[in-house]
Design a protein that fits this description.
- The longest helix is centred in the middle third of the chain and has 27 residues.
- The protein is built from 9 helices and 4 strands; from the N terminus they run βαβββαααααααα.
- Strand 1, helix 1 and strand 2 form a beta-alpha-beta unit.
- The protein is globular.
- The relative contact order is 0.15.
- The mean pLDDT is about 95.
- It is about 60% helix and about 10% strand.
- The two termini are about 25 Å apart.
- The protein has a 4-stranded mixed beta sheet, with helices on one face.
- It is of the alpha+beta class and about 230 residues long.
């Protein structure tokens, strides 16, 4: 049995983290039995990030590496019937989503004052005083430092959301009216897409990022279909 370590559902989505949503969708696609263990402390994972899994007796972090292990050792095929060109497109969009658009999501949650209040309450509200007062701003400063290191926070607010809007337009143009990213069969890219889009569209937090996503009806419809298929009880 695969053990999946992740926080509980939050913000009207299957999880607070798009990577947790992605990984759970992959496990459901592969029809592999798994058990969720609620864990909110990233430091307990092998890469000090969430999600992570216990697989073949070892703790493994990083959703991409876990995906590779599910394919190489557990018979999953998340690129079934895809051409080499489609696999290349899948990788390119995955990088766009996880290495760029994801950081705009982080910015929209942690740097927008209204959303920061939601994050602070959800992540730190149960801590004892004085940690509840001190820790949120310490973590927020670290998140900002990470975004500056990535590069996204070196731009002003309008430029950040402009780039995100371009990313979302590219995704919407690629999806068109297809059921899944590559037609009638779900693939790894769909798990990645849904994880991020649900974190933007379903989550009960507003921002220019969400406004940009809601502009594309096909992104809204795609997110709704994926939610109904993979998390019908939400």
């Amino acid at each position: 049995m695969i053990k999946l370590f992740q926080p509980p559902p939050a913000f009207n989505a299957a999880n607070a983290s798009p990577f947790c949503i992605k990984l759970e969708v992959l496990l459901k696609m592969a029809k592999l039995p798994y058990q969720i263990t609620i864990e909110g402390d990233p430091s307990k994972g092998p890469t000090r990030k969430i999600p992570f899994v216990e697989l073949d007796g070892k703790l493994i972090g990083d959703s991409g590496l876990i995906q590779n292990l599910l394919e190489s050792k557990h018979g999953a095929d998340f690129h079934e019937n895809l051409s080499d060109e489609q696999k290349a497109i899948s990788l390119a969009f995955t990088r766009l989503i996880e290495e760029h658009l994801y950081w705009v999501l982080v910015y929209s949650r942690w740097m927008e004052d209204e959303n920061w209040q939601v994050i602070k309450s959800a992540f730190f509200g149960q801590l004892p005083i004085p940690l509840r007062w001190l820790l949120p701003n310490i973590i927020k400063k670290q998140v900002l430092k990470n975004m500056v290191g990535h590069g996204i926070a070196r731009h002003d607010r309008s430029a950040i959301y402009q780039m995100a809007g371009e990313n979302l337009t590219a995704i919407a143009s690629f999806l068109g009216d297809k059921t899944y990213a590559f037609g009638d069969q779900a693939s790894a890219l769909d798990a990645t897409l849904y994880g991020l889009l649900s974190s933007i569209i379903d989550a009960d937090m507003n921002s220019e990022l969400k406004t940009a996503a809601l502009y594309h009806d096909n992104l809204v419809n795609y997110t709704s279909r994926m939610r109904e298929e993979f998390f019908p009880k939400l």
